[in-house]
Design brief:
Length: about 475
């Protein structure tokens, strides 16, 4: 049995069988986090990517099959997935799987919501669905399977001897590449495809996934669209497979397949398939407490700890930030771009700026969206006194967890230091249910009145007890 067929059989078993209780209970939290991030993106003063995407899909037009979160536009399912996936990733506040360093939910959840909502308009093709209105349980199963496939592909690309993903080593965005295939699985399940149809959907999607991470280093807003395009491509691939388009059976392991094309043939087949359906990578996916690139989180933790200890930023002469060697390329280089970010969004990918922001104050769970509304002159000045180095201990731990050390030399010659071996929200320190609720209510409340925020949360919680995607999306539309 080929790799893609084994993944497809697993996915269909998720839909047609019984999910483990822990998985079934986990997924609504993923949906809630995505919805909150999407709604908060509308209040981002530096958020030009999502409005551009919404204007573009309005130009494209098409039948109204699914809802754009927040705006309420009725769009073709692939277009709705594009808008919603862009919103989900726009703030860099979406969940993360380690050690693959993937953000799976921002592609898979928007694809699943759009596919589920579009089913009433889905009538034709050789794989006409059994049920034109998928239940909340089927939505949960589709999201669970899509995220698991996405993360298994990411794990196959993680090579322990390199202590990093081959995707990232080559400048590729694993999130959008693997997310396209995960989105195709989720959408295909909701369209009622058989295992053969799911395999074809993945085979088609493999020709559509892409993404470069140079924007993390030197600017540009295209990265915000990566998860949206992955969701768009995944839904499109599933529709095409339902209408009869087929993919190569050896699309993953073949001579010119996914692993050869993206990873030069270097991948871990055991990580892809071992324990599939028994050991869930989904359950190792962590939530972000801060709306910044995840590599900056242990740096922020260190700075917040020093501030709580009484550090007065006015006394700081210089700061040394020690991080894993592989992440220097993302959050510390080029140095001139990181100490003077081009925009508040790019400041989220800067170790110098984020450590300065944490030392000079912050909201929410430590740093909030307001901390990146503008480029603050005081934070820019302090960022100019930061230098970043590779830290041996943090490098050894990476990417199983994100570690860092911050050393501060004061003007009187004395020194302070704080180290963390696993960032807040990471595998060793996951956010509590109360913290996740706080994050969601803060995010969703930027676009909805508080009573509507509560109604939306309740609609998501009801998914496992017969709720519907339509109800969730209807309650995610802003007023006015």
């Amino acid at each position: 049995m080929t790799y893609v067929r084994r993944l497809a059989e697993f996915a269909v078993a998720c839909r047609d069988g019984e999910l483990p209780a822990a998985v079934r209970e986990d997924v609504p939290g993923r949906v809630l986090d995505v919805l909150g991030n999407c709604l908060a993106a509308y209040a981002d003063p530096d958020g030009d990517a999502a409005p551009a995407v919404l204007r573009a899909v309005r130009r494209w037009g098409g039948s109204g099959e699914a809802t754009a979160i927040g705006s309420g536009d009725r769009l073709p399912a692939p277009s709705a997935a594009l808008v919603n996936g862009t919103l989900a990733h726009a703030l860099d506040f979406d969940d993360t799987h380690l050690p693959s360093v993937l953000h799976p939910s921002a592609s898979v959840v928007p694809a699943a919501l759009a596919a589920a909502q579009s089913m009433g308009a889905f009538r034709t093709g050789p794989a006409t669905p059994r049920n034109p209105h998928p239940s909340g349980g089927e939505l949960i199963a589709a999201i669970a399977a899509g995220i698991e496939v996405c993360e298994r592909l990411g794990m196959a690309s993680y090579l322990p001897e390199e202590r990093n993903s081959r995707f990232f080593e080559q400048g590729q965005h694993a999130t959008s590449i693997c997310g396209t295939l995960g989105a195709a699985v989720a959408a295909g399940l909701l369209f009622g495809l058989t295992a053969g149809g799911i395999a074809d959907a993945v085979g088609v999607a493999a020709s559509m996934g892409a993404g470069l991470i140079e924007a993390n280093r030197t600017g540009g807003t295209v990265k915000r669209v990566h998860c949206g395009w992955a969701a768009h491509a995944g839904v499109s691939a599933a529709v095409l497979a339902a209408e009869g388009l087929t993919g190569p059976p050896t699309v993953l392991e073949g001579r010119f397949g996914f692993f050869q094309a993206w990873l030069g043939g270097r991948y871990d087949a055991e990580a892809l398939l071992e324990g599939l359906g028994e050991r869930w990578e989904l359950l190792r996916t962590v939530y972000k407490p801060y709306p910044t690139n995840h590599f900056t989180h242990p740096v922020i933790d260190c700075a917040l700890a020093l501030r709580r200890g009484g550090l007065d930023p006015a006394r700081i002469a210089e700061i040394e930030v020690g991080v894993p060697a592989p992440v220097l390329r993302t959050i510390a280089e080029p140095w001139e771009e990181k100490v003077r970010p081009r925009s508040p969004y790019h400041a989220k990918f800067s170790a110098p700026y984020t450590v300065a922001a944490a030392l000079l104050g912050g909201g929410g769970l430590g740093l909030a969206l307001e901390d990146f509304a503008t480029l603050d002159p005081a934070r820019l000045e302090l960022a100019g006194r930061v230098r970043c180095v590779a830290d041996a201990r943090a490098s050894e731990i990476f990417p199983a967890a994100f570690a860092a050390v911050v050393r501060v030399r004061l003007r009187d010659g004395s020194a302070l230091e704080h180290r963390v071996d696993s960032s807040r929200g990471g595998p060793e320190h996951p956010l509590s249910a109360a913290e996740l609720e706080t994050k969601f209510r803060s995010n969703a409340g930027r676009a909805l009145p508080q009573e509507r925020v509560g109604e939306l949360a309740e609609a998501v919680r009801k998914l496992g007890a017969g709720g519907a995607a339509d109800d969730v999306l209807a309650r995610s539309v802003r007023l006015g």
